[in-house]
Amino acid sequence: MEWILFDKDGTLIEFDKSWEKIGVRLVxxxxxxxxxxxxxxxxxxxxxxxxxIVPDSIMGSGSLGDMIKSFNKVTGEDTSDWARNTSQELVDxxxxxxxxxxxxxxxIQELRNEGYKIGIVTSDTKKGVDQFLEETQSKELFDLIISxxxxxxxxxxxxxxxxxxxxxxxxxDQVAIIGDTTNDMKTAxxxxxxxxxxxxxxxxKREELHExxxxxxxxxxxxxxxxxxxxxx
Length: 233
Known about the structure:
Rossmann fold, about 230 residues, 2 domains, hydrolase, elongated
């Protein structure tokens, strides 16, 4: 294994509550902008209950593309451009929370010391990732950052990893991905990566990661080195 790719929120850092606020606000703005007869039903259909996001709902674990499909069904209209532009506006104005999950930063340094290349593959924007790297003073830990801008490819589309394969001579079977969502695991399957490791510090439950074909499921990304050591043997 040459490259280890980490999701950010829920994997490297504690799940950022500001994302939940964005999701709820996006749905609220949707229902303010497009005429929907029963807004309470629409909230439930999209996964918002009591101003909180249901973890395994579209708003909890779906990509923006998945959300747009659901928005279109709820409103009966094409919400694509509105959703992409509005979600970007909300993301650009959010105040992120960047708290490392205990032990993960030290684990990444150990992996680097052993010669692994380390990357981030996140649904956050470049601005959000830069804020994380600056606030935690950890830019030197990562060899590659793949973020998701308004019209970029999203996990689990394997094209999301094009920046890695276009810039480096590495085969997919020499890449591992670590994440807390089913989309992270599906990305590994779709891109034919060598190893997918699900962690339980974020959104998905163990059974959800298992159903998404995670090769290994661990409590936290701080235990990744042990799994890679076993994989080498």
